[in-house]
Specification:
The complex is a heterodimer of chains A (about 1150) and B (about 140).
Chain A (H helix, E strand, L loop, with lengths): L5 H4 L4 E6 L5 H10 L4 E6 L33 H7 L4 E7 H5 L2 H17 L6 E8 L8 H11 L6 E5 L3 H36 L5 H17 L3 H21 L5 H25 L3 H16 L8 H21 L26 H28 L11 E3 L6 E7 L2 E6 L2 H14 L2 H18 L3 H17 L3 H18 L2 H18 L2 H12 L22 H18 L6 E5 L10 E6 L3 E2 L4 E9 L6 E3 L1 E6 L6 E3 L3 E3 L5 E8 L4 E12 L3 E6 L26 H6 L3 E4 L6 E5 L5 E2 L3 E10 L4 E12 L20 E7 L11 H9 L3 E3 L3 E6 L7 E10 L4 E12 L6 E12 L2 E8 L4 E3 L2 H8 L7 E4 L4 E9 L5 E9 L11 E7 L6 E3 L4 E10 L3 E5 L2 E8 L10 E6 L2 E5 L3 E6 L3 E3 L4 E9 L5 E7 L5 E4 L3 E6 L4 E10 L3 E4 L3 E5 L4 E3 L7 E5 L4 E3 L6 E3 L1
Parallel strand pairs in A: 1-2, 1-3, 3-4, 4-5, 9-19, 11-20, 22-30, 33-42, 44-53
Antiparallel strand pairs in A: 6-7, 7-8, 10-12, 12-17, 13-16, 14-15, 14-18, 18-19, 18-20, 21-23, 23-28, 24-27, 24-29, 25-28, 26-27, 29-30, 31-34, 32-43, 34-38, 35-37, 35-40, 36-38, 39-42, 40-41, 43-45, 45-49, 46-48, 46-51, 47-49, 50-53, 51-52, 54-55
Chain B lengths: L1 E7 L5 E6 L6 H20 L12 E7 L4 E6 L5 E6 L6 H19 L13 H19 L1
Helix pairs in contact in B: 2-3
The chains are: A alpha+beta (about 1150), B alpha+beta (about 140).
Protein name (chain A): Trafficking protein particle complex subunit 11
Pfam family, one (chain A): Gryzun-like
InterPro entries (chain A): TPC11, TRAPPC11_C
């Protein structure tokens, strides 16, 4: 498309000529150009330049009385001239002062006008006079205007005033001018078109050339007016007449005639396609193009210049492709329901430029083919063809050539004979290197196709490129492209196509001297599943040769003997075949171990199987099998014969002393001493099918004798660890108790192995899973671990006097000791057979928790260089040793009145806090119950204030009333111990911390050394200390005797500064008589004690309930009813006698 | 005249390809059949297709080359049947009926208990039957 002249490629734009006032030309041109539709301007700075508008002196051939046949169809410069030199309107610009002022100037203006008029005489070009006024005030008189109009012989409306004094005036004037020009241009082009049409209609010309020319001109004029439909119509008409003319015209020699017709047809078709595509009619454009192609396809012309036809033909595709690519119209994918059916006869690709690029490339190849033939025939018969003339140039008509002959100063243009033209065309054509253009076209097609996802079509284009490179001896590029094509055909299993490509590749490799690649391609070809069944030998497969079995055999022989034939090169060719290599069909190696695991140093059988699809049997001279453990590698130098399409199986035994995975890596086969094929071993179970052979109808065979092994066989085997000859024992003495340092002895005894480099790993894991030995909320605290591995005792370096000095050196040097909260590593010294080593794991439980202790011993047995591991585990419960509880009480028969207790009765919702009376002895009973399964020794029980005993101020006094008297007390499981403490608060406080009960205990030990004591703590709650306003105490003897009177006092102490009134009452009892008031009130003075005194005489013996005593404080509305225990007394029937001593001495109470 | 018929498998691999032309452009026919798979891919994977055409097995004209027209057919097991003809003016109905017969022949061939699905079709009777169908295509055009 770029070869076309500019005027043809772009739509024509109306032309207006400006003369005079050169300073205004630029603004006017710019304005007109930006108008819609735009108008081009031909600016003439002054009137003397107007001669460019002069028309040439040739006359219309039809207007002559005897019309001579035209010498061509279209003139080369006509369109350009009408776009740049023949304006539709000529505007003469005069300054107003030029007209109105000096008469000499007026005369000059008149002369200029006359000149212009004469120049455009005989044309329908319109003349417009523009009077330029710099100021609105420069109004010209009507007379001057009329005179000027008459001079110019124009309509009044064609005389325009152009005011430019300010921007708005200028804009207005420009608008006025532009609309006038647009209107006049339209008229001009319409008239011109009409004139041409009338010529066609009036005289049916005997010369179709002229008809075509007029149709073309009408269409161009229509395009000037943007009347696209008319333009299209006349282009079509011209195209039709031209096609008819092709068979009838005799004006030029036949070859040149055809060239001219095709050139014109090309231009017309280009115009038609452009118009259709810009109108969005892509379907019509494609249909039109296909018709064009169909029409001209067979118009090849004479055989010696058929290359011209194909070049032209290829150009049609190229131009259409470029048009499609640049056009805005998109393929009708969404509108059309379906391609390729009756309702839409086109297929997707016909709307894609790539399709046309590819065809353009194909036809350019055809052209090159024909050109080569023509060149050959030319050199064969040199006498027949004239030498190419020197100065051939395009003639004035489109599609024609002429010869320039210089005779002295006279240059004449002579027509060419066909023979001369052919020679010229051949010489021209040979100057160009078509292959680069073909490659470029294929490349464009390939890129476009791959961007649309049409990989196979893109692949075909790549193949075209590769073939071109091959043809132009560029083997490096060619090989690279062929490789990509081959990958595609390999993937989809198109053997015949691959055969052809591999043939090229093989040849490229050979020419580039790549021995390895040559061998690889040859072998792949030989192993391809192509047979001569469906392909005749006549098919041209390029350098590959016919795709037959015999050709494959031939290629195999060539490849296997290639290196030998070339020279005595000692370096053999090495080929690597991995699981993705296309050479797998050449040699496929499957390795299967018969077992899944094997003991160390015992034999494991494996089967190595070979399969080759090469057509001929070949011999493997030697074989090397390599494993990941190099000690297991083995090789064979027995010649093996690998037959086509048949598994060759070898069974071998390997022994491995090293535990772990034993995997077969590669199998190297040496063939003919010049080729080493290194195959990656494949497991039969995981082996993929051969891409090219999996679709072939052939017998299924198995790589191993046992078909089950073919399905499950692996190329690797697990070599077990040697059995450990060592005893690892973990002991524990029952459950661990929270707080104590619990010891777990670990015993390592060698029972056969010498333990070297031993390493003991200890791991503590929560037995209930989760592995967390700390609570997640407390992870940031360092001592938040519930269970902690403290240390490992009994390690050799701690024993200073280790008797084995030779061993201690070693242990010191490579001693590992690393202990964390739940993990520890210690090294184990070298142990000879029968020796033992022991250590204790010290673990402390902070919370009751069940823990798994994992201990693993890894060591090197003396003889083999690999590690052996022994694992043991033990679950240990962590338990709380004591269940500790406490209770607050008041002393017997003494009741202080605590206000907070009364309050809590009224509002029970409040948080209940134990209240203690200030400066009274409050009793705390602490009970500790052994809840373990073992007897424990209790050493002490104390109440320790919180924060230690260092506080300056004593807030309360603690006194132990009853506790542990001697050293320690033994507690059997389930037994409970009670300690009684008296607490006397010294300060009244709503919240007082009483501290912690510390129970010190230890396990019962049979050993001499006392185990460490452990302290278990129990914190006492916060209490409220308040001063009791009243304290009531009952004083009564512990027992009495029937009939013997005794006194009972009730003492009420008033601790306040107020007078306290109390009421008291005493109920009746049938067992006692008493003296004193039944019901009475009393007032207690501040700070005083009021004593109520009663005298009782009991009647009956036994445990007797005293009469019910009730004391009520009026102020506090509090009533005291002593408990039943406080109101009970034992009455003896007679005076008791207690024998305390064995000797019978009596104590009389 | 039909110049080539082909059966193409799931992996776009040729299962059967027979050309009926005496000239040496059999390789070119291979290329044509191979490239027409692109159009089949595009038509089958194009989500814009209307519902009425979804169950259509006949894929229509795949693409025209200069001398041939290529038609496609997709069986319910996603095996592609492809036909290349030199008749540039073919009726849709004729092509459809050809594909129906071809499909029937293919179904009979793979129903053979000795045929392994997915492998190339090497049955001679299938070839003969296809040959008959291909030969009967030409005269029906002229009628």
């Amino acid at each position: 498309m770029e070869d076309y002249p500019e005027e043809l490629r772009t739509p024509p734009v109306a032309l207006v000529s400006l003369a005079g006032c050169p300073e205004l030309h630029h603004p006017i041109s710019a304005f007109l150009h930006s108008e819609q539709p735009p108008i081009n301007t031909l600016a003439l700075p002054d009137f003397s330049k107007a001669s460019v508008l002069a028309r040439k002196k040739n006359r219309d051939p039809l207007s002559q009385p005897t019309p001579a046949p035209p010498s061509g169809i279209l003139k080369r410069d006509w369109l350009l001239r009408h776009r740049t030199r023949v304006p539709a309107v000529v505007a003469a610009l005069f300054r107003a002062d030029q007209i109105s002022g000096d008469p000499a100037q007026w005369l000059q203006a008149c002369t200029d006008l006359e000149n212009l008029k004469s120049l455009i005489h005989g044309r329908s070009t319109r003349l417009v006079v523009v009077l330029v006024q710099t100021q609105a005030a420069e109004e010209l008189s009507e007379d001057v205007m009329t005179a000027l109009r008459k001079r110019a012989e124009i309509d009044p409306k064609h005389l325009v005033e152009f005011v430019q004094n300010d921007a708005s005036d200028l804009r207005q004037s420009l608008n006025k001018l532009a609309s006038l020009f647009a209107e006049l241009c339209l008229t001009y082009y319409k008239e011109e078109g009409r004139r041409m049409r009338s010529i066609i209609e009036k005289k049916s010309s005997p010369f179709p050339e002229l008809n075509i020319r007029y149709c073309f001109k009408i269409a161009i004029y229509a395009e000037f007016r943007r009347d696209w439909s008319e333009a299209l119509k006349f282009y079509e008409e011209a195209y039709r007449v031209l096609r008819e003319m092709a068979n009838t015209s005799t004006r030029l020699p036949p070859i040149q005639r055809l060239v001219e017709i095709k050139t014109i047809a090309e231009q017309l078709h280009f115009k038609i396609s452009t118009l259709l595509l810009h109108g969005g009619k892509i379907m019509e454009a494609v249909a039109r193009f296909l018709k064009h192609i169909k029409t001209y396809r067979r118009l090849v012309g004479l055989p010696e210049v058929d290359f011209l036809h194909w070049e032209w033909f290829s150009r049609q595709f190229l131009v259409f492709a470029e048009l499609l690519e640049t056009t805005a119209a998109s393929a009708p994918t969404s509108q059309s329901p379906r391609f390729g059916t009756a309702e839409s006869p086109f297929s997707e690709w016909e709307f894609q430029p790539a399709y046309y690029y590819q065809l353009a490339a194909n036809y350019l190849r055809e052209k090159r083919c024909c050109l080569e033939q023509s060149s050959v025939s030319k050199t064969d018969l040199p006498s027949k063809i004239t030498e190419a003339p020197d100065s051939v140039m395009p003639s004035i008509h489109i599609g024609q050539s002429a010869r320039l002959v210089e005779e002295g100063d006279i240059v004449t243009v002579l027509p060419l004979s066909d023979a001369e033209y052919v020679a010229y065309a051949l010489a021209e054509a040979e100057r160009f290197q078509d292959c680069y253009e073909i490659i470029a076209l294929y490349k464009r097609a390939q890129e476009s196709f791959s961007s649309h996802g049409s990989q196979r079509m893109a692949c075909l284009c790549t193949l075209g490129m590769a073939r071109e490179y091959y043809a132009s001896d560029d083997f490096t590029n060619s090989k690279q492209l062929f490789d990509t094509v081959a990958a595609m055909y390999r993937r989809e299993g198109w053997a015949p196509l691959l055969w052809e490509v591999l043939g090229y590749l093989r040849d490229c490799a050979k020419r580039l001297g790549l021995t390895k690649e040559y061998t690889a391609y040859s072998l792949e070809m030989a192993a391809l599943p192509v047979f001569s069944i469906s392909f005749e030998k006549t098919i041209d497969f390029g350098p590959a040769g016919p795709a037959t079995l015999s050709r494959r055999e031939e290629i195999q022989r060539e490849a296997l003997n290639f290196a030998v034939e070339t020279d005595g090169d000692p370096e053999p060719v090495g080929l690597d075949i991995d699981p993705v290599s296309p050479l797998r069909s050449v040699l496929l190696v499957a390795v299967a171990f018969h077992e899944q695991s094997v003991k160390p140093n015992s034999a494991a059988s494996l089967t190595v199987s070979f399969l080759s699809h090469l057509p001929l049997l070949f011999k493997v001279d030697s074989l090397e099998v390599e494993f990941n453990q190099p000690a297991c590698n083995f090789s064979m130098s027995i010649p093996l014969e690998v037959s086509p399409n048949k598994w060759l199986r070898l069974t071998h035994e390997v022994k491995s002393g090293q535990s772990g995975k034993l995997e077969c890596l590669t199998v190297k086969a040496k063939i003919n001493n010049n080729l080493i094929i290194c195959c990656r071993a494949e497991s039969p179970a995981l082996m993929e099918d051969l891409t090219m052979w999996k679709y072939e109808n052939q017998r299924e065979t198995y790589p191993t004798l046992d078909p089950a092994l073919s399905l499950s066989g692996q190329k690797s085997i697990q070599v077990d660890e040697p059995n450990p000859l060592v005893d690892l024992t973990l002991n524990s003495i029952g459950p661990a108790l929270v707080g104590e340092v619990f010891q777990i002895p670990v015993l390592v005894v060698s029972t056969g192995h010498v333990i070297r480099g031993g390493e003991l790993k200890i791991n503590l894991v929560d037995a209930r899973g989760g592995g967390m030995l700390m609570s997640p909320r407390e992870t940031d605290e360092s001592d938040a671990h519930h269970v902690e591995l403290l240390s490992i005792s009994g390690l050799p370096e701690e024993k200073e006097d280790d008797p084995n000095t030779d061993l201690s050196e070693e242990t010191k040097s490579d001693n590992i000791r690393k202990i964390q909260y739940s993990f520890g590593v210690v090294s184990v010294p070298v142990l000879k057979e029968g020796e033992s080593w022991c250590c204790n794991l010290e673990i402390r439980w902070h919370r009751p928790k069940s823990v798994m202790v994992y201990v693993s011993l890894g060591y090197n047995p003396g003889d083999v260089d690999q590690r052996v591991n022994v694992h043991r585990s033990l679950q240990i419960e962590g338990k709380v040793p004591f269940f500790i509880n406490h209770r607050f009480m008041m002393p017997f028969r003494r009741e202080p009145l605590l206000i907070s207790n009364i309050r809590s009765l009224i509002s029970p919702l409040e948080e209940k806090k134990v209240s203690l009376a200030l400066k009274e002895n409050n009793i705390v009973i602490v009970s500790a119950k052994n809840c373990t399964d073992v007897p424990l020794n209790l050493v002490s029980m104390k109440i320790v204030p919180e924060g230690g005993t260092d506080s300056n101020e004593k807030l309360f006094l603690v006194q132990e009333i009853s506790g542990i008297s001697n050293k320690c007390i033994r507690f059997v499981p389930g037994e409970e111990f009670r300690g009684v403490f008296s607490i006397t608060p010294l300060v009244a406080k709503t919240s007082l911390s009483l501290g912690v009960v510390c129970v010190e205990w230890m396990r019962e030990s049979k050993k001499q050394d006392q185990p460490e004591t452990v302290t278990t703590k129990h914190s006492l709650p916060q209490v409220c200390v308040e001063e009791p306003p009243l304290v009531a105490a009952i004083k009564c003897p512990p027992f009495s005797i029937v009939g013997d009177p005794f006194s009972l006092y009730i003492k009420v102490k008033n601790n306040t500064n107020l007078l306290q009134e109390i009421k008291y009452s005493l109920g009746d009892s049938q067992n006692f008589v008493f003296c004193g008031a039944h019901v009475h009130t009393a007032s207690v003075l501040p700070g005083n004690e009021h004593v109520l005194s009663y005298k009782f005489v009991p009647f009956s013996a036994g445990v007797q309930q005293l009469p019910r005593i009730t004391i009520t404080s009026v102020r506090y509305s509090a009533q005291l009813i002593p408990s039943i225990a406080a109101g009970t007394i034992f009455v003896y029937p007679a005076e008791p006698k207690f024998s305390l001593e064995k000797n019978g001495s009596e104590l009389v109470v | 005249m039909i110049v080539c018929v082909a059966v193409v498998g799931h992996q776009n691999n040729p299962l059967y390809l027979q050309s009926f032309t005496g000239s040496d452009d059999a390789l070119k026919l291979h290329h044509i059949v191979h490239c027409s798979l692109d159009v089949i891919d595009e038509r089958v994977n194009n989500p814009k297709r209307s519902a009425s055409t979804l169950n259509e097995t006949f894929l229509g004209l795949l693409y025209p080359t200069e001398n041939y027209k290529v038609y496609g057919y997709l069986t319910n097991t996603k095996v592609k049947l492809i036909m290349v003809t030199t008749d540039l003016d073919v009726k849709d109905a004729d092509v459809r009926s050809f594909f129906r017969k071809f499909h029937a022949a293919y179904v009979d061939a793979v129903c053979n208990p000795f045929h392994v699905p997915g492998k190339k079709i090497t049955s001679n009777s299938f070839s003969e039957r296809v040959g008959t169908i291909v030969r009967s295509f030409g005269p029906s055009m002229t009628l």
